[in-house]
Amino acid sequence: MSIAVKICGLKTRQTLEAAVAAGADFVGFNFYSPSPRFLSFEAASELAGGTPQSVRRVGVFVDASDETLERAIKAASLDLLQLHGEEPPERVSALKARFGLPIIKALAIAVPTDVDRAQAYASLADWLLFDAKPPLAPGALPGGNAARFEWSLLAGRQWSLPWIISGGLDAGNVAEAIAATGAAAIDVSSGVERERGVKDVGMIGAFIAAARASG
Which residues are known to be catalytic? Predict the structure, then answer.
């Protein structure tokens, strides 16, 4: 099984090129302004211009307005929209109808009932993404907190659409996470950073190599 890898929260040409060279399938551009990984439309446009067509460009949003989505799609030539907020199923349906792009719906999980919520999106989204619930701490973000969930929550679960795991992954534990969940796709941000919001070229390469070795 080939593991699909998304490197999220890229901000520089150097780290984008490192992700592409190491074999990333998806690169994520963050349009959530409180995040240390936030990109302006102008910066996202510059990075997107250096992304080969073989690598899919994902815009990451948290309860964003239609205007923000429209500007980001145009600026970064986005291939997919990742909704990482509290977007209800009807919002997912409306955005897919309006913009015509595949949607990744992120769900924060900590207990089995959180996972059960995914079923409401199964016929609407194109991908599900399971991430850890944010810690109850000042400055915690909807994602990218280096927090992991209990992987056994996903063991044996099946959905009618592809799904991704995220949250607290790094080169040292990604193989274990894949084995525990059966995931065919993984998403990392903080696990390839040398400090919050600052990606490391070597860590990106090591993470993708570890993920590929587990597949």
Answer: 8, 131
